[in-house]
Write a structure and sequence with these properties.
This protein is of the alpha+beta class. The chain is 39% helix and 26% strand. Helix 1 crosses helix 2, helix 2 crosses helix 4 and helix 6 packs antiparallel against helix 7. The longest helix is centred in the middle third of the chain and has 21 residues. Bound molecules: (3R)-3-hydroxy-3-methyl-5-(phosphonooxy)pentanoic acid.
C-alpha cells in the first residue's frame, strides 16, 4: 500500500518554549496554535525491503545527514514502541519555502508519523486508524515525541496542547475548527538565513533565563485571555496579546545563558515600519515570530490585502507568502 499524507504546519499564538522533561517531550507550559491551510508537508510512504529510505525534495538523504538521523530515529522509536517491523520508503517535500520561518519540523514529523502508521496499519483514513486503536489524539502524541509542535498539526483550526499534571497527562485537542474564524497569516521573509540554534537546543536554555519563571507564572492567565479573544473573534483583544507573548518568548531567549538571538536588526527595523504603517492606516493586523527571523502577520483578509500593497511599495524586493487557517491533515491511498 502507498499512502500520501498532506499535513499543514501550525503557527503558535501562545508559544511552547522550554521543557520540563525532554525525554518524554513534556513542555514547561501550555501552548495554542492555528493550523494553516496550504503550507504543508506532503509525504509519500510505502513499505520498503531491508532498510528505511528517505527522499527529501527529490534528493535521497545520505545516512549521515542530520535530517536522515532525525527521521530514522523517530521511525525506529515508533517501531520499537508499537511493535511494527516493516521498513519504509519516505518521499517528502514542503509546499512552502524552507527557512521562511515556518515550522517544517512540525508538519514534517506529523506527516512522517501519520504516513507510517497508515502503511503499518493498512489504514487510509482517520476512522480506520481510530478503529485500530490509533485515534487522532494518540497519533498527535506520537508525533510530538518526534518534534513537540508536531502534535498540534493533527487538527485543523485552533489547537491547544496542555502540559497536564505530569508527562503522561498531556492533552492535545482542537478548541475551534477552521470555520470558526478564517484568520490569515502573511509570512514576510526578512531574513532567509538558516537559524543557527535548532529549537531542541534552544528549549534547554530557557531555564537559564531569569525571565522564565515569571513567564511560566503568567501563562494560565494568558491562555484564558487568548481563548476568550478567539471565542469572540476579536482582533483588538487577540492581537496585542500575541505580540506581547512572542516578544516575551524572545526576551527569554535573549536573556538565556548563553543568549539566543533568533532575530536581529532587519527584523526590528521591519517591526518599527510595520507598527507605524499599521497605525497610519488603521489596520487590525498583528505580528508573531517563532524561533527565526521572519515575521508572521496575523489578521483578516481585507486588511492583509491592504498591507500587501504598502509592503510592495516600501519593501519592493521582500518576498512574502499568504495562507489562512485550514482544516487539517489529509490522507490518500495511491493506486
Ligand atoms: O517543536 P519545536 O521543538 O520545534 O519547538 C517549537 C517552538 C516554537 O515554534 C518557537 C513555538 C511553538 O509553540 O511552536
Amino acid at each position: 500500500m502507498e499512502i500520501r499524507v498532506t499535513v499543514p504546519t501550525n503557527i503558535a499564538l501562545l508559544k511552547y518554549w522550554g521543557k520540563e522533561d525532554a525525554e518524554r517531550q513534556w513542555p514547561a507550559n501550555d501552548s495554542l496554535s492555528m493550523t494553516m491551510n496550504g503550507w504543508s508537508s506532503v509525504t509519500l510512504v510505502k513499505e520498503y525491503v531491508g532498510t528505511d529510505r528517505f527522499i527529501f525534495r527529490g534528493e535521497k538523504l545520505g545516512q549521515d545527514d542530520p535530517k536522515f538521523l532525525k527521521l530514522k530515529k523517530h521511525l525506529d522509536f515508533l517501531r520499537t514502541k508499537l511493535g511494527f517491523t516493516q521498513f519504509l520508503a519516505i518521499n517528502s517535500h514542503n509546499t512552502f519555502p524552507t527557512a521562511c520561518g515556518l515550522a517544517s519540523s512540525a508538519s514534517g514529523m506529523a506527516a512522517l508519523t501519520l504516513g507510517a502508521l497508515c502503511v503499518w496499519l493498512e489504514a487510509a483514513d482517520f476512522a480506520t486508524l481510530a478503529a485500530k486503536g490509533y485515534t487522532r489524539e494518540r497519533i498527535a502524541h506520537l508525533s510530538r515525541l518526534g518534534s513537540g509542535s508536531a502534535g498540534r498539526s493533527l487538527w485543523g483550526g485552533f489547537v491547544r496542547w496542555q502540559k497536564g499534571a505530569d508527562a503522561e497527562s498531556q492533552v492535545l485537542e482542537q478548541v475551534f475548527d477552521d470555520k470558526h474564524w478564517p484568520l490569515c497569516n502573511t509570512v514576510v521573509m526578512i531574513d532567509s538565513e538558516e537559524k543557527k540554534t535548532p529549537s531542541t537546543d534552544g528549549h534547554k536554555l530557557a531555564w537559564s533565563s531569569p525571565l522564565f519563571l515569571p513567564r511560566l507564572a503568567g501563562m494560565e492567565n494568558k491562555m484564558n485571555k487568548i481563548l476568550a479573544a478567539l471565542q469572540q473573534k476579536s482582533l483588538p483583544l487577540l492581537g496585542p496579546m500575541i505580540e506581547q507573548e512572542c516578544l516575551e518568548m524572545h526576551a527569554v531567549m535573549m536573556s538565556s545563558q548563553p543568549p539566543l538571538f533568533y532575530f536581529g536588526e532587519k527584523t526590528t527595523r521591519f517591526l518599527a515600519w510595520f507598527r507605524s504603517m499599521r497605525e497610519r492606516n488603521h489596520l487590525q493586523l498583528y505580528f508573531t515570530i517563532d524561533a527565526g527571523a521572519n515575521v508572521h502577520i496575523i489578521g483578516e483578509k481585507e486588511d492583509q490585502i491592504k498591507f500587501h500593497e504598502f509592503l510592495r511599495n516600501d519593501y519592493p524586493s521582500v518576498e512574502f507568502i499568504i495562507d489562512h487557517v485550514g482544516s487539517g491533515p489529509q490522507i490518500e491511498e495511491l493506486v
